[in-house]
Design a protein that fits this description.
The protein has ten helices and ten strands. A hairpin with a 2-residue loop joins strand 9 and strand 10. By secondary structure, the protein is an alpha/beta fold. The structure holds adenosine-5'-triphosphate. Adenosine-5'-triphosphate (ATP) binds next to strand 2 and helix 2. One of its GO terms (biological process) is L-alanine transport. Involved in beta-(1-->2)glucan export. Transmembrane domains (TMD) form a pore in the inner membrane and the ATP-binding domain (NBD) is responsible for energy generation. InterPro entries: AAA+_ATPase, ABC_AA/LPS_Transport, ABC_transporter-like_ATP-bd, BCA_ABC_TP_C, P-loop_NTPase. It comes from Bradyrhizobium lablabi.
Length: about 270
């Protein structure tokens, strides 16, 4: 059995994420129209599409930052459509942003430690002996998982851009997530940093599924086993990376940038 099939077989049946008929309007603009999508536990999926296709709005609906205008969202079987974002985080949903959410004056380790405190049930205490703290150990493990152990005591402001993006992944991994939404993690990275990102994503624990929005097809298609193509707020194609990559319609719409921003005003 190949590693992907094995990984998906051990994490169980059912859906991690299930969207049914999700539509999101902004005034007269339909940013998403009737999106139906199922992602299995442990599955890794890319959502691709040209600018304005609705990818970020899809993430915002899943996280609860912008609830859908209509339709339903289930997370591991539970209807979370009307849950606030923190309730989804409590259930194991995480997200990274295109814009950095790091504390630049703190060290790498302290950023991760605070993220671990933030999602843990116990409150942060300045009086807790830090060396005995299991959260400290979790933070160390996460720093290692994103290849930043060598710079763990450095302030975030001193890190290279690629290292900051790696740190954002560590923050998303805090507190035992079950599913992560990665928003363009390769943006602004050098070729070497992209290679490192691919290694980090493909080494994540097998039970953690994710959706990645990524304009860099080379990165996206190497770290997923399925792809959803969006155009003008709708899903127009789904399939394994090889099939999507060689699809003539995808090539014309995505690689040719045939986006019609006026096509979905009512
Ligand atoms: N808060 C908002 N208010 C009004 N319109 C919005 C809002 N958010 C998104 N839109 C519009 O919805 C459409 C989809 O935008 P979205 O950001 O989801 O696309 P995208 O695929 O993520 O694009 P990009 O690749 O450029 O990030 C766009 O036409 C955008 O202008």
């Amino acid at each position: 059995m190949d590693s992907v099939a094995h990984r998906l077989s051990v994490v169980g049946a059912g859906a991690a994420l299930e969207l049914r008929g999700v539509t999101r309007l902004f005034g007269a603009l339909a940013a998403l129209t009737d999106v139906t999508l199922t992602v299995r536990p442990g599955e890794r999926r890319a959502v691709l599409g040209s600018n304005g296709a609705g990818k970020t709005t899809l993430f915002n609906c899943i996280t609860g930052d912008f609830p859908p205008t209509s339709g339903t969202i289930r997370f591991f079987g539970e209807d979370v459509t009307n849950f606030p974002p923190y309730e989804r985080i409590r259930r194991g949903l995480r997200r990274t942003y295109q814009i950095s959410a790091l504390f630049p004056g703190l060290t790498v380790h302290d950023n991760v430690y605070l993220a671990c405190c933030g999602v843990s049930r116990s409150r942060f205490s300045p009086f807790r002996p830090r060396s005995n703290d299991t959260l400290m150990q979790s933070a160390d493990d996460l720093v290692q998982a994103v290849h930043l152990t060598a710079v763990k005591d450095r302030r975030v402001a001193e890190l290279a851009h690629g290292q900051q993006r790696q740190l954002e992944i560590a923050l998303a991994l805090a507190g035992a997530p079950r599913f992560i939404l990665f928003d363009e993690p390769a943006a602004g990275l050098s070729p070497t940093e992209r290679g490192e990102l691919v290694e980090i994503l493909t080494s994540l624990p097998g039970h953690i599924g994710y959706i990645i929005i990524e304009h860099d097809m080379d990165v996206a298609l190497r770290v997923v086993e399925s792809v959803t193509m969006m155009h003008n707020g709708r899903i127009f194609k789904e399939g394994p990376p090889q099939e999507i990559e060689s699809d003539p319609e995808v090539q014309e719409l995505y690689l040719g940038g045939g986006h019609d921003p006026g096509g979905r005003y009512g």
